[in-house]
Structures are given as structure tokens and as C-alpha cells.
Amino acid sequence: MLDDFLSPWVKNLEKSDIQKALQTTSKPDIISFSLGRPDNQLLALADFKEVIDELFLPSNLQYSPPSIELKVHIVELMKERGVLCTPGEVLLTTGAQQAMTLLSKLFVNMGESIIVDQYTYPGFIQVAQALHAGLIPIPVCFQQGLNIKELESILELNKKPRLLYTISEGHNPLGTSLSREQRTELISLVQRYQIPIIEDDAYGFLNYEKVEPPLKSYWREGIFYIGSFSKIFAPSLRIGWIIASEAIIEKLEILKEGFDINTCTLSQKLISCFFAKRSLKEHISKLKEKYKSKRDTMVAALKTHIPEMDFAIPKSGFFIWGRLPPSINTNRVFKVALEEEKVSFLPGSTFLIGNNREAQNCLRLSFAFCPIENIEPGVKRLALAIHESK
Ligand SMILES: Cc1ncc(COP(=O)(O)O)c(C=O)c1O
User: Fold this and answer.
1) DSSP annotation string for 37-79
2) How far is the CA of 97 from the centre of ligand 1 (A)?
3) Does the pLDDT of residue 1 top 70, yes or no?
4) What is the pLDDT confidence band of residue 264, given thresholds at 50, 70 and 90?
């Protein structure tokens, strides 16, 4: 009966592997390397506690226009990343997830196509599916990410795609950061074909080595930049932002109203208060220091306990993308790891668009959420699971 009520495309909708992992990860006996969650110890709870009482005002529980104060803070924050913009070029959104939904809705009509990395953030795949857009995957290089030559061949062959979605810094799931050469070649290619880019920079503020500025700073008009407070403050606040021209922001504001009327007032105030009382620079450098130690701990543990895993050390973000010998199937390892060894990760196939046998022996490990002292024990458990699933 219910099936008759549903629109046809919804009938095959399934929970993403990430949503499923969210349930298993919460079990206390599991060491979790599966999700891109920030560390509980780094959620600035004490700072929030300090200001929360003074924020309990009727006006903060009301509908409200976007906070100009917060937009001004974002403009300052973006300067740190080498992107210059004005408050009028900032749209506050309900997380980066809504930002990518709004931008895609603005540019893509049903049946049109979007170019994405062959392995990408599943949240974006869901956005494209809901728009009935076609996804064109670009094959990636194992440790470098975006493959410009492959992109060029796709652009030569295909009827013009509407846009390209990519994660230039701390890629999810590949952990890659685009080099300066990749950035300049990408920009000159998309300028030649006049294809706009959605640049998802959800992890862009968490760098452990020197990195390049976002693509936005290379091509102001053609790059639609997405930022998020989820990884540098707290995901539950659900605050992200878009940087685009004022004309585009105006259209997006109208679209957004149909989605959620306004971004949570209390969350906007909470973040503004934090900016007013604390040095954001200090806050972010503390996060970088902590996540860098976690990254280094995981790298050392992988080299010791799983020497057969091939991986690059990420410069930014939360993820290590590993490749095991071709005889190992990471979907099989996943089952054994969870059921027998009580450790979780996400198999490469979770992020794959299309068919690629290479995904079978790949996996994504997040070093961010798990307490640092559990990282080496977790990697040892993973080594056992790989051995048992052979
Ligand atoms: C690449 C990427 N973009 C966007 C998001 C969603 O961010 P937000 O919590 O701001 O919606 C995530 C969350 O994991 C992500 O990995």
C-alpha cells in the first residue's frame, strides 16, 4: 500500500553505509575508525557552557535573519585561507550538506550531469540522486587524487556537464590535498570549458603541513566555496556557509527559505559568542596539534602492524585511504572486523561511483574520533581481521 503512495525514485532509497556505521560505532566495545566525527574532547564544551546561559533569550529562540556578526567572523576566517570576500558574499547554511544541496539545485536540472571524483563523499551522491542528475566519475590517482588528464578526456567527450564537485583539501575519502600544479591545471581546464566548481572545504582548516589556498582564490566567479563549522566546532550546531557573488547569494537565500526558513538562530549566536571571546586562531591551532598527533599515531601503527597496506600520509582532514593486496576484499574484512575484532572502518566501495575492481581492496580509516590511546590497539585488531578474512 505504502509503495503506491511513494514516488517511483524513492522506492529504492536505502540508508547510506555511513548512516549504518553511525549506529554500530556508538557501541562502547567498538574501536571506531569509521566516521568523520570530530574528537569528543575537542568540542569546546567548557567555552560553550560559559556563554550558553546568557544566550537563553527569547530572541535567540525565534526565527531570525542571518547573523551579520557571524558573517563578518567568516570573512575574517576566510582570510586565513587566502580567500577574500565580503559579508554580502556569505550565505549561512544548515551545514555544508545544505550548502551543496542548494548549490546543486541552483545549477542542475533533472537529467543533467555533474562531474565528481570516482571516490567521493556519499552525502553529495545523495544530493545528486534527489535531483535525478547523472554522475560522471573522474578516475583518480591513488595517492594524488584528481587526475587532470582523465578529466580532460571526459570533457572532450561529454556534452557539457553542469558542474564539477570536488574536495580540494583533506579529501573525503582519499585524504588527498591538491598540489599547486593540480589546482592551476584544473582551473585552466574548467575555465576553458566554462564549468563551475562546487569546492567542498569541510576539512580545509585542519592542516598538518603547509597547504595551498582553496580553488576559490584561483577563480572568483566560477568557484562556489563551501565551508563548515562541523569539524572545527561541533556538527550538531549544523552551521556551514557558501561564498559566492552577491547575485548568486540572493538566489540561494530564496531557495533556502523553502528548505528550512532560517538557519538555527541559537547556533549562530553560540558560534558568534565563541569568536567574540576566544581567539579562533588559537582554537584551530590546538585542533591541528591534537589531530596531527592522532594522524602520526595511526601512521606509525599501520606501518608496524599492517605493512602490506599502501597509503599516503594526509596533509589535512581526518582520513587515511589504504590499499591492501588485491586478494583482500575489504567488504569481507569489514564484517570480520566488526563482528569478531570489534573495530570499524569503511570499505572503499562505500564511496565509489560506478564499477571499479580496485575499490575491493581499499578502505577509509578516520583517526579523528577514536581516543589516541585506542588507535594502536584498534590497528592491531584490524590487522587480525585482515588476517582472519583471507
Ligand atoms: C566532505 C564533506 N562535506 C560535507 C560534510 C557535511 O558537513 P556538515 O556537517 O557541515 O553538513 C561532510 C561530513 O562528514 C564531509 O565529509
Assistant:
1) PPPGGGS-HHHHHHHHGGG--GGGGS--PPPHHHHHHHHHHHH
2) 6
3) no
4) very high
